[in-house]
Write a structure and sequence with these properties.
This protein is α+β, with helices and mostly antiparallel strands. The chain is built from eleven helices and 18 strands. 36% of the residues lie in helices and 24% in strands. The strands form six sheets. Strands 2-3-1-9-10 form a five-stranded antiparallel beta sheet. Helix 7 crosses helix 8 and helix 9 crosses helix 10. The longest helix has 26 residues. The radius of gyration is 31 Å and the shape is elongated.
């Protein structure tokens, strides 16, 4: 059993595209390697802000129906081993093998006879060579909702500029080309906490080293860390989060090293209807609302930073509070302006529709 591992590392991938991209990469790779996989062979898929990756267990010998139960290779039986030399010469001449050393190489001795193996009985192409010669063509079929043309030729399209690629079979690099990038054994960690490239030897080492370089590669684990971290922060204030699974999914796609935080909402904005305030927080800033034990809106908001600040997050919280203050000031203005015209006064406009 061997491991095939592929990582495509790029500039930031929009959060809404990551899950489908991971599923598409898994589907393409598994279909490509289907003859080298058995039922129950493990596979894993990863996706995040700057990478999608897949790990698949494979057998380096094809397991297709044809190869799983091989029959005797096609062969022609020649003269007996003790037959006169003229008999063998005539047999070889009949098969155009007298002067062709490649054909003569297929002559074997078995059970007292000469046999000439059919050329189709030659050794199968190694999996590594199949990957190197054909995988790039498979990945060229990858589609994004929106793609960019970039690079000198502008012939290669990807969601954002592709920077690195890992392609390995059982720890050995297969140097395929995809656009302007050639696969090797290097990836990158967190932009701020651990900039620069480092080498890996497979999926397990990749995931472990990424954690050491401040990147949680597993999207399920990353989401659990975000949900639990925010819930713990809220509980510390005697509050609870307003459930929003879709927003949690989006936040998971925005950060590599989640650091949950809580900010405060100015009292003047608590007079806004919760729907107005919370919609602005969610759509514009990706903030989650909080409630107290009675279900009353609390003057706090929850969010997730993508790094650990030296001051414990004080400056990050202050910055987000300042941004939210501006957002809610706009909401407050439009809410007040909308209320200047009662809904009943707007009814006559329906007559023109």
């Amino acid at each position: 059993m061997a491991e095939f591992f592929l990582e495509l590392f790029s500039e930031e991938i929009p959060a809404r595209m990551q899950r489908d991209a991971g599923a598409q990469l898994e589907s393409l790779v598994v279909a490509f390697l289907q003859n080298f996989r058995a039922p129950g062979d493990k596979k894993r898929v990863f996706y995040g802000p700057r990478r999608i990756a897949v790990s698949v267990d494979v057998h380096e010998t094809a397991l297709s129906d044809q190869n799983a139960n091989p029959t005797e290779p096609a062969r022609q039986r020649g003269p007996r081993l003790d037959a006169p030399p003229q008999a063998l010469e005539g047999f070889l001449r009949k098969n155009n093998a007298v002067s062709d050393p490649l054909i003569r190489d297929r002559l074997v001795e078995e059970n007292g006879y000469y046999y000439l193996l059919d050329k189709s009985a030659s050794a199968p192409e190694p999996l590594a060579e199949i990957i190197q010669s054909k995988l790039a063509g498979v990945l060229a079929k990858f589609s994004w909702p929106k793609s960019m043309r970039w690079g000198q030729s502008e012939a290669f399209m990807w969601v954002r500029p592709l920077r690195r690629m890992i392609c390995m079979l059982d720890g050995a690099v297969i140097p395929i080309d995809l656009g302007p990038v050639t696969a090797d054994d290097k990836t990158e960690g967190h932009r701020v906490h651990a900039p620069g490239a480092f080498t890996v030897s497979g999926m397990a080492a990749w995931e472990e080293k990424l954690t050491q370089h401040y990147v949680i590669a597993n999207p399920i684990l990353r989401r659990e860390m975000i949900a639990q971290g925010l819930a713990d922060k809220a509980a510390g204030l005697g509050l609870r989060l307003v459930a929003d699974e879709a927003l949690l999914d989006e936040i998971t796609g925005l950060v590599e090293w989640p650091v949950p935080m809580i900010g405060r909402i100015d009292d003047e904005f608590m007079a806004l209807p919760p729907e107005v305030r919370e919609l602005s927080m969610k759509v514009n800033q990706k903030y989650l609302a909080l409630r107290d034990d009675t279900g009353k809106p609390a003057p706090y908001f929850a969010f997730v930073a993508n790094l650990e600040a030296l001051d414990g997050g004080v400056s990050i919280i202050e910055g987000n509070q300042r941004v939210l203050r501006a957002r809610l000031s706009d909401a407050q203005y439009f809410w007040a302006r909308d209320r200047e015209t009662p809904l009943d006064d707007a009814l006559p406009k329906l007559e023109t529709i």
